Input
Amino acid sequence: MAAIGIVIVSHSKQLALGVRELAAQMVQGQVSIAVAAGIEDPENPLGTDPIQVYEAIASVFSDDGVLVLMDLGSALLSAEMAIEFLPKAQQQKVYLCEAPLVEGAVAAVVAAAAGKNIHQVIAEARGALLAKATQLGVSPLPVVSDDIEVRNSEFPVKEIRLIVSNRLGLHARPAAQFVGTVARFKSQILVQNLTRNTELVRGDSINQVTTLGVRQGHELVITATGSDADEALAALQALFANNFGEDNVALNSPPVFHHEVTPATHGELSGIAASAGVAIAPVVNYQPTHITITEYHVDDPESEWQRVQAAIQTARQEIQAVFSQASLQIGDAEAAIFDAQLLFLEDPVLLEAAHQRILDHHINAEAAWQAVVDKVVTSYRTLEDAYLQERVEDVIDVGQRVLRLLAGNAPANLHLSEPAILVATDLTPSDTARLDPRMVLGICTTSGSATSHSAIIARTLGIPAVLGVDSQVLHLADGTLMALDGESGKAWVEPESHILDLLEAKREAWQTAQQEAQATAHQPAITLDGRQVSVFANIGSINDVQVAVASGAEGVGLLRTEFLYLDRTSAPTEEEQLEVYQAIAQVLDNRPLIIRTLDVGGDKPLPYLRVGFPEANPFLGWRGIRFCLDHLDLFKTQLRAILRASVGHQIKIMLPMIATVTEVRAAKVILSEVQAELNQAGIPFDAAMKVGIMVEVPSAVAIADQLAAEVDFFSIGTNDLSQYVMASDRTNPRVANLVDALHPAVLRMVQQTIKAAHAAGISVGLCGELAADTVATPILLGLGLDELSVNPQSIPGVKQAIARLSIVESEAIAASALQQDSAVHVREIISTSIIPPTN
Output
């Protein structure tokens, strides 16, 4: 979020303090506001002092910008003079604004608190009289409503033409990358689909870009006007040249199913085959709560707009949480669906339309938001392209989320108590991403398609799905037996015994085929030249460990213990934790189990442990080991449970977010204290239990040699390490393309860590998303990793990839990759270096 400072300059100190109080109340202190007002003269206190203004600017200075609002007369002169005292570099970041003092300050702080950049904050301040003018029935002066540089003769129009080559054109994920790239530049960027002869639209609007209907082979013209036009067009050209990071094959394309022509039987329903597999279970109806919107007149439209902004902010946090969870469950590639949803919430065209509607019609936030979302939905539905028409589900998904927050409704409950087939009108992408495949055995809906985002997620989760069946299915009582075949696209209500027999046989045959395909997964992963690499699983619950062992995991390289602490009102007890750790160790049957201590705080707060203050940069904040060292009771309870569970099992402790040697030593002292307490109480534990750390902070890489002397093993967390190395948040679509663990900067960090570990004689593993990417396998082997830890579903593929490689070949590829200048070139090196295996 932008940390913009606001300065109020006035002849009257009382007036300025009053304005600051009013503005501060609007945002609960989220924005730094300084006052420079009045002079030190008891006889005549009215006036302004340039030094005071200078000190006020310096006190709230930020590289994101400082906005100065002032009275007329000497206030303006004092502000101009104060800027002269600042260093040249800082002068460029301070903006004097002619907006009205009171209304401008209120509008500016609200915009700054919403994370808008300095130009957008200035625009909001300048437009602050709009609501008052509308109410009084006068026409306000026009204002520039965004930060795009206005076209003028100073900047010529630059233009490029491109042919789109990626398979599905600008669908949600590439469109999100396109808009995110545009947003990095000041220039006005417009785009037109020449093939479809569309109008020119704004490149920073996710909806306008998506509704261009851009498919493979279409020709686009992109224009840029402004000071950084050439750089903007070059960045966009690079995106297209790289196919937006996609292979020209389906990421998770709808399956091609062979339909068996059979006569319709009793209770048979035909639909769309969307996700293969057979499910037989009772049905549970899921109908999300319908939000009824009533339009009504409001006297204070600006407060309604603030309600919309607050709901959008909360929706953004919720979608980022869905993205994080989906990344763990279905991988980053598919989870990127939610990048487009985040950009929808930042679409300037949409937000301006909602703001204007509230101001023009004096209507409530819910009605205005619904109206603008409906308009966008209609624009999608009128597209000729059927694939792009289906993207409307994402618009509705986000629109309903904001509407639910405005209405104060709780999220829908999708937690089943017993395994079942979920029956619904439709499922949104975020609904589907929340499903537990162990409880939701199948999906049957009356709408949807095989290319919808919901269907893609269902396939990735391995949940059989039949979509678009007759609406009569919605009237079934919960508990009614249903069978569905996601390959043929058929479902049966209360199926007859011969149908059940056929489906059971088909399910068994499918399971047998899966078992045969996974047979090699239970063998060690050995390279062509005889090097064995351990392949472990990352898990986040008791149920995950069953899947991990069934998938061929040789142990657990990362047990995320956060699941024990979330979704509850108090911390889990020692006994509760002990029971879970023992249960997981039991299933592993003496395979290694690495338990990561609690990694919350910052962006993953615990509701029952208040931080007490908002963190501007939670990823750089109070999280991981920092949090635990400040909550010793919580930390000791967890360590006691882990130690007690270690008896008779191969359990190791791993500390997260280590940045300093001091943190490791402090944690080891606490561990020793807990061990002494258990000894004194006569409670057994494994005294030789190994202790390791996560290497996911650049400082840990820099001092890896010192850290290696303190611990028994390293595990590299490339998800966080990539973000910290590239200074980019992977949930922020504007910079997410920078967060690529195959970037040479990240790979060199991995190499440095491995060298330090091996020099100290300790083992080193990798448990980030990169470990599951078989494209990266030769580099990881070539760098010398001892083990890889991946999500359970990826284990067979990773073991296959290892078995097809030699260490000699991998070392050559890794050496070459480290010398490249971008992740794109690293991928090119890999694709041209590996000879496909011969049958």
Summary: Residues 137-153, 248-265, 835-839 have pLDDT under 50 and may be disordered. The longest strand covers residues 278-285.
